[in-house]
Design goal:
about 290 residues, Receptor-associated Protein, elongated
């Protein structure tokens, strides 16, 4: 019994030392200015700084990267201690900032698309009293809420600092990540540069957006049940696996300790992920 305990402690100590060595090597690589790891680290930090600035988030890129590093080290440490469930939780924490960013992007894009109709209407009314597009856009800042207000303010600031208005609008369309918003901006630029009736063009674009929003609402309503079932079926295997493992410890040992069983686990995992992605693609109806 003592020999087994000593062996277990020595194994965990070896894991801990391995973690320390890996952390030291990575730290040394990051400290070196020409190291590939440092280059990727700097690019990743720049990516987060850009995205957080775009989202007007109250956090800095340094804090987000600190979460990544702390969660990764905790995951390796839990694996060294044999705490598989805690290691899984730490692994999820590693990707939690990326999941938050993905959801924040989607929510911001949806809010921009919902506010686009009212902003185009306000811009149309402003153009009827002021033919200058820049002044008309500036007058709509107080008429819309965030995030549309933030984008309009940034367009006006960039234009004031010397960036052409068309380029400032194009940058806003790229930041939005929305095809609908980009189409509206393209329509606005084309009508302005070709000398067309800009207020009437914006009025027509606003009516088109309202019809598209109505059709998208119908599609979401018709596919709501399917999306709910897809999410439930995709998540269900996780609680079932851990529930059986909790109620009957060692139930999966014959599969975990054999090559065939591990192959079955791998095949099931691949099929599970593939089915989840396929169901998501099937239900991603686009009008």
């Amino acid at each position: 019994m003592n020999l087994t305990l000593t062996t277990l402690l020595m194994g965990r100590l070896a894991w801990t030392l391995l973690v320390v060595v890996i952390a030291a090597v990575i730290g040394t690589e990051i400290a070196s200015e020409r190291a590939p790891i440092r280059t990727r680290w700097v690019r990743y930090r720049a990516f987060w700084h850009q995205e957080l600035t775009k989202m007007h988030a109250p956090w800095s890129a340094r804090k987000v990267l600190s979460v990544h590093v702390a969660a990764a080290l905790a995951c390796v440490l839990m694996l060294a201690l044999g705490q598989w469930l805690y290691a899984l939780g730490c692994a999820l924490m590693v990707f939690s900032p990326n999941i938050w960013l993905w959801r924040a992007r989607l929510k911001r894009t949806e809010r921009l698309e919902l506010q686009l109709d009212s902003w185009l209407t306000a811009l149309t009314n402003a153009l009827q009293s002021n033919p200058s597009l820049g002044d008309a856009i500036a007058s709509t800042i107080t008429l819309v809420d965030a995030p549309m207000r933030d984008e309009v303010e940034l367009v006006i600031k960039e234009n004031t600092l010397g960036l052409p208005l068309d380029d400032a609008l194009e940058r806003a369309a790229v930041r939005s990540g929305s095809r609908v918003f980009r189409a509206a901006i393209t329509t606005l630029k084309v009508a302005r540069n070709t000398g067309g009736n800009l207020p009437q063009t914006l009025k027509t674009a606003s009516e088109t957006l309202r019809e598209m929003a109505r059709l998208e609402g119908v599609v979401r309503t018709k596919t709501a049940d399917g999306r709910t079932q897809s999410i439930a079926i995709s998540i269900l295997p996780i609680p079932v696996y851990f529930g059986i493992e909790y109620m009957m410890p060692g139930y999966y040992d014959p599969m975990r300790n054999s090559l065939i069983g591990q192959g079955i686990f791998a095949a099931v995992g691949v099929l599970w992920v593939g089915a989840a992605l396929l169901s998501h693609k099937i239900l991603a109806v686009d009008i």
